[in-house]
Amino acid sequence: MSVLDLARPDIRALQPYSSARMEASGGRVLLNANESPLAPFGDEGLGANRYPDPQPAALVGALAALYGVRREQVLVGRGSDEAIDLLVRAFCRAGQDAVLVQPPTFGMYAVCARIQGAAVLEAPLAADFSLDAEALLAAVTPAVKLVFVCAPNNPSGRGVPRATVERLAQALAGRALLVVDEAYVEFADEGSVADLLDRHEHLAVLRTLSKAWALAGARVGALLADPQVIGLLRRILPPYPLPLPCVQAALRALSGEGRAQTAARVAQARAERARMAAALAALPGVRAVLPSQANFLAVRFDDAGDAYRRLLDAGIVVRDVRRYPGLADALRITIGTPEENDRVLDVLASGRNAAGEAALLKGPVLEGRGFAEGPAS
Fold first, then answer.
1. Which one-letter DSSP state was computed for residue 151?
2. Which of 34, 198, 249, 333 has its CA 20 to 30 A from that of 66?
3. Assigned CATH topology for domain 259-364
4. Domain 3-19+54-254 identical in fold to domain 259-364
5. Which residues carry this modification: N6-(pyridoxal phosphate)lysine (predicted)?
């Protein structure tokens, strides 16, 4: 069974839009796309008066080399979010098909499905946020066309063993497309599973330059998949998804010097993650620091709301994840610079002490001065 047999028949039969840039190659006098012949003010050689290539060859080549896949297995777009949306639109018929997710997990899988009118089925993670392959497979119904696995997981930070991914890829062949989201894999002990693509055409991998490569503002991501899947998604991809400045920023980051800097920064983030995990676990009021393979830590507090407010009052914004299943007492703290991390520790430690002192000192005189109106901030 071909992986395309899972896709929507109407998308497989769709005549895609053919842009002027796709139809013509070569030439120096470009009069086919109704562009301005003159560059805008301040262009400085960028060439922003011309539409960019739909799939910039240099960027596709650089990403293929980085991820160890063939060029025809790469689709670049606006972050991983665009690839998620394209997959749902290409494989899920409104009111008929479904996606399977493992909460707590990245919310865009469900959002894209619901926008498309596809059902969202759930196979929750275990209490320790590990993925149970057998439970997941038991939740797959004939309606499920896409199974999303976030590895490492967001927001818990837990990794997914390579053997588990292989087990799922084998079991889902002919049943659903397994989509492994590796947004944080650069920070993990285990590497990417992209090398499994040639063995499993029902496997796809999401990658992004937003995290380890520090290009969140450029919005550059990639889907790695069977060339048939890439070709299908190109049918519904907007004609010019990546702006020229974003492409250039990505190519600079992927240069030799850029790769060396990224490797050093990832090493620092991993070291800081270990330091922060130990330091946070030692603080009063911290119940637990969840094991993480990402660039963040999910931290359980006696009073997560109070910890959030104290950090915010100090100008530090962390992610409140209490709405996620199994994380009702948790905050997600991104690993920052060593100085930023020290500030987080200082605020949490001093804030806790201040709260304790206020409780001891609370009395009629202090209450009369307004010190008993609420918890210390």
1. S
2. 333
3. Aspartate Aminotransferase, domain 1 (3.90.1150)
4. no
5. 211
Query: Model-level pTM greater than 0.85?
Result: yes
Would you say 108 and 87 are in contact if contact means Cβ atoms under 8 Å apart? Answer: no
d(CA 306, CA 73): 47
Q: How many helices (H) and strands (E) does the chain have?
A: 13, 11
Q: Which of 205, 203, 122 has its CA nearest to residue 169? A: 203
Rounded CA separation 362/377 (Å): 15
* Residue 178 φ/ψ, nearest 5 degrees: -90, 120
Which residue, among 362, 364, 331, has the nearest Cα to 348 in the 3D structure? 331
Q: Is the bond preceding 40 in cis, omega lying within 30 degrees of 0?
A: no
In CATH, the number for domain 3-19+54-254 is 3.40.640.10
- Residue whose C-alpha is closest to residue 306's, from 290, 286, 288, 292: 286
Strands 330-334 and 296-301: antiparallel
Query: How many C-alpha atoms does 81 have within 13 Å on its Cβ side?
Result: 11
Q: In what order do the strands lie in the sheet with 319-320?
A: 286-289, 296-301, 330-334, 319-320
Q: Where are the domains of the chain?
A: 3-19+54-254, 259-364
Unique residue bearing structure tokens 């005549």: 15
Q: Contact at 8 Å (CB) between 290 and 301?
A: no
CB burial of residue 306 (10 Å; 0-12, 13-18, 19+): middle
| Cα radius of gyration (the chain) | 24
